[in-house]
Amino acid sequence: MIYEMTYQIRVTDFEKGLHWYKTLLNKEPDFTPHEGFAEWEIIPGAWLQVSEGSPSEGSGPMRLGVRSIEDERVRLMSELDVEFFEIFAREEVPVKWATFSDPWGNQFGFFEYVKEAEMHDRVASILGKKK
Fold it and tell me: What is the CATH number of domain 5-126?
């Protein structure tokens, strides 16, 4: 039985990486057990770890669900100098999605449910709330 997950990315400049990810996630790390390592619980049981080291080529993207990709794109371009990134959608897919890179080449992205009711249903399911 799988009950929890972690996803680790590496950055060559930990202090810069720590600042970048605090800004991306809009919060301080939830756990910093030692120097050169920080961890955020994104949703219950799902952790993002940022560690000092050499980034892995070709990994990702890890996509995070957001209310508005457009708003997040504007925020990241303004606050983190992320380059403009395209938002994709297909009629048969219930979400829009986009991918961008951090300054170390780690691939990240966002997705947004096309129908807001689907997002609310998904959040309720994740939190264990009945409809």
Answer: 3.10.180.10
